[in-house]
Amino acid sequence: MPTRHLVFDVNETLLDLTPLDSLFARHLGDAGLRRTWFASLLHWSTVTTLTGDFMDFSALAGDCLDAVARARRIDLDADAREAIFTAIGRLPPHPDVVPALERLRAAGFTLMALTNSAQQTVDAQFEHSGLSEHFDHVRSVAHARCYKPHPDAYGVATDTLACAPASLCLVAAHDWDVTGALRAGFNGAFVAREGAVYNNAGTPPTVVGDDLTAVTDRLIAAYG
């Protein structure tokens, strides 16, 4: 079955989270805690999915931020929380993103974004970053009441595009996300940002590249 539909993860794959580092440094005393917070958020989204207790992703993000602050014995005030979450809605795309999306659309691919973030959050992110015009569909997995990498989360893409999983390819900078899509019947492309290594415990990706430019080259060569 031809793969003509590309489904993109959003945070870290398309949008750059590093502008949050200065805010974590200012309000929590350590820029590196941004990574701690995001890893905790992914952890707890998985816990809520596995236990069948779906929680809004934005609420989870707030709880994880509070936990990071408590671990540092910091009382994070309302202004600091607002500054961080306002910045999340205004994250910029990585420099390679828009040129890659333009090439993929010109090659005839349907482009969809699928994120664990709440629909309101991703809509704000795409409006601010200017990415909306490059996508045919932008969806939150919240419509499935579970988070990636649960198979039902990827069903939001197959339902939206009204096609079989084998005709889709998930593009993500997270090996767990790519593996989840592959095990749901998708193809998978791994964007190895910052030298990331794909864990051998995962299902091997269909396409691998050091950045979205390299991944785009290989997607067009394979499916264009």
From TrEMBL:
Pfam hit, one: Hydrolase
InterPro entries attached to this UniProt entry: 2-HAD, HAD-like_sf, HAD-SF_hydro_IA, HAD_sf, PGP-like_dom2, S-2-haloacid_dehalogenase
UniProtKB keywords: Hydrolase
UniProt catalytic activity: an (S)-2-haloacid + H2O = a (2R)-2-hydroxycarboxylate + a halide anion + H(+)
SUPFAM superfamilies, sorted: HAD-like
Enzyme class: hydrolase
GO molecular function, one term: (S)-2-haloacid dehalogenase activity
Enzyme Commission designation: 3.8.1.2
Keyword Phosphoprotein listed: no
UniProt key word Protein biosynthesis: no
Function: Catalyzes the hydrolytic dehalogenation of small (S)-2-haloalkanoic acids to yield the corresponding (R)-2-hydroxyalkanoic acids.
Protein family (similarity comment): Belongs to the HAD-like hydrolase superfamily. S-2-haloalkanoic acid dehalogenase family.
Protein's recorded name: (S)-2-haloacid dehalogenase
